[in-house]
Write a structure and sequence with these properties.
- This protein has 198 residues and is α/β, with parallel strands linked by helices.
- The protein has one domain: 3-Layer(aba) Sandwich (Rossmann fold), CATH 3.40.50.150.
- It is 30% helix and 26% strand.
- The protein is built from 6 helices and 8 strands, in the order αβαβαβαβαββββα.
- Strands 3-2-1-4-5-8-7-6 form an 8-stranded mixed beta sheet.
- Strand 4, helix 5 and strand 5 form a beta-alpha-beta unit.
- The C terminus is likely disordered.
């Protein structure tokens, strides 16, 4: 894996061993950040199920003001911390070593209170994680989202997520190979939704 653009462009990243963690491919990450490009500078970015940290680190490289990584697997946390250290990153991020559900449900002292961009990439086989995380972000934990925030879920192309999770409504879906990216926003106006779906 490599960082695609920004201040850390072309630097390499390690991935956790085994099959439990599935890093977002370079190509899909490039597609994701092509869409996020107008929003990334100065953004508060939340990387859920962070794994190696590739997505959050890409966000930092491209000018995000801060990134919070949420990951509970010890092997993934070790690789995430090693990647940050190898890149010389010492500020602008926080690591929350716990489950995504625990992070979204419990108040966090010292973490940003409003995120502009949220990315979630649970293990593909953990289908319940999608509904739980998106349900919280569109419901009880919606206060974590800044006005106009965008929530992006990576999932199998053949696995169709719901169109709505509480206040979150899908505005766009991009497919690439076997994977897909679903983009959700809160309080979407019909004209905006119709213009963004592709």
């Amino acid at each position: 894996m490599r960082i695609i653009a920004g201040s850390l462009r072309s630097r390499t990243l390690q991935a956790p061993p085994g099959l439990a963690t599935r890093p977002t491919t370079d190509r899909l990450r490039e597609t994701l950040f092509n869409v996020l490009a107008p929003r990334i500078q100065g953004a508060a970015f939340l990387d859920l199920y962070a794994g190696s940290g590739a997505v959050g680190i890409e966000a930092l490289s491209r000018g995000a003001a801060s990134v919070v990584f949420v990951e509970r697997a010890p092997a993934a946390l070790s690789v995430l911390r090693a990647n940050l250290a190898r890149l010389g990153l010492t500020a602008g991020f926080r690591i929350h070593a716990a489950s995504v559900g625990a992070f979204l449900r419990k108040p966090r002292v010292g973490f940003p209170s409003n995120f502009d961009l949220v990315f979630l990439d649970p293990p593909y086989d953990a289908e319940k994680e999608y509904a739980d995380a998106l349900g919280l972000l569109g419901g009880a934990s919606a206060g974590l989202l800044a006005a106009g925030a965008l929530v992006v879920a990576e999932h199998r192309k053949k696995e169709r997520l719901e169109e709505k999770y509480g206040s979150l409504e899908r505005t766009r879906m991009l497919e690439q190979g076997d994977a897909a990216l679903s983009f959700f926003a809160a309080g979407v106006q019909p004209w905006y939704r119709d213009s963004m779906i592709s």
